Amino acid sequence: MFRTRDNGLASTTWHEFMKGLGNTRDVAAERAKERAGTVRDALSDTGVEARRRSSLALDMLAGKPAPIRWGWVAAAAGVGVLAGFAVAELLRGHPVDEAVASLRRQLSHAHDKVEESVG
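-> structure tokens emitted (119 positions)
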């Protein structure tokens, strides 16, 4: 009596174990496919970079000038414009401007006095 019930329980447990094992296998296979795709993409990018660098090296050995990297030139120009704008904004309304304006007023007043006394 116990054997039949134990066999049924063992059989049910075995089937659930196999079902879980199958699910685990499916998940592992899917993850392996994802990682293989990631590795394939990385190797492809590496191959493209290696071909680009070898082409540049052969050009340099042949005496051809290196190509101008306009992206870097544009980026440097943009950074320069932004830095100039930031400095101009920081110096706007600065006490030096006020001192220059005060000096101009004093010189203008002195110029007017000189013209009155001469003229």
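DSSP finds three helices and no strands in the chain.
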